[in-house]
Design a protein that fits this description.
The chain is of the alpha/beta class. The chain contains eight helices and seven strands; from the N terminus they run H-H-H-E-E-H-E-H-E-H-E-H-E-H-E.
Length: about 200
């Protein structure tokens, strides 16, 4: 990326912004300029919010969600059905399902999907705690994996790992498009996929 004719602080801001998903070098320059032009309204509050988030946000020790407490507010909510567990790849997928308001059980975030090419093995994901949670009174496990090769590989691995237990294993219906990611789907598609889930 060509250097901006400015101090190292601006260059560092642009480089850090360009590492965010969806922001390339050109978009990062535009974002940095917008922040700098509105220092009091945007840049300073954003800096404070990021410092506060870095200090306060924790990874939930039970499900892997991000929250200010551990266990998180979803795990601590007595209105949620503890007998149904929805397994997702990432926190973004959990948030997508919560936005759609289609699920009232508990969650488990794996922290990714199996990928031999990227060296992501079962040991590198949050799988062992999932198996332990299933033994603790869970009646149904919903595999809400992304409809990618890695997501489906992960779902098949989990089906095999859970085969010895008596738990019912379901997955989202094919309303989720192949190659699609939950975070990018609309609420209607997510709602239909949940309602049409089936046993494996």
């Amino acid at each position: 990326m060509p250097s901006v004719q400015a101090g190292p602080e601006i260059e560092r801001l642009i480089q850090l912004l360009s590492k965010l998903p969806g922001l390339g070098p050109r978009s990062a320059r535009r974002a940095a300029l917008a922040l700098l032009k509105k220092r009091e309204q945007l840049l300073e509050p954003l800096g404070t919010a990021m410092r506060d988030a870095a200090a306060a946000i924790k990874t939930c020790e039970v499900c892997g969600n991000l929250d200010t407490s551990s266990p998180c507010s979803l795990c601590n909510d007595p209105r949620r059905d503890a007998h149904v567990l929805c397994v997702v790849e990432d926190v973004a997928d959990l948030w997508a399902l919560e936005r759609a308001s289609v699920f009232r059980g508990k969650y488990h975030v794996l922290g990714g999907a199996l990928s031999a090419l990227d060296g992501i093995t079962p040991e590198k994901l949050n799988m062992a705690p999932l198996i332990a949670r299933v033994r603790d009174g869970v009646e149904e496990v919903i595999l809400a994996m992304n409809a990618t090769v890695e997501g489906q590989t992960t779902a098949h691995y989990l089906m095999d790992a859970l085969a010895a237990s008596t738990v019912k294993v379901t997955r989202l219906a094919h309303g989720v498009p192949v190659g699609g990611e939950l975070d990018y789907l609309d609420e209607g598609t997510l709602s239909h996929a949940f309602k049409a889930r089936r046993s494996l």
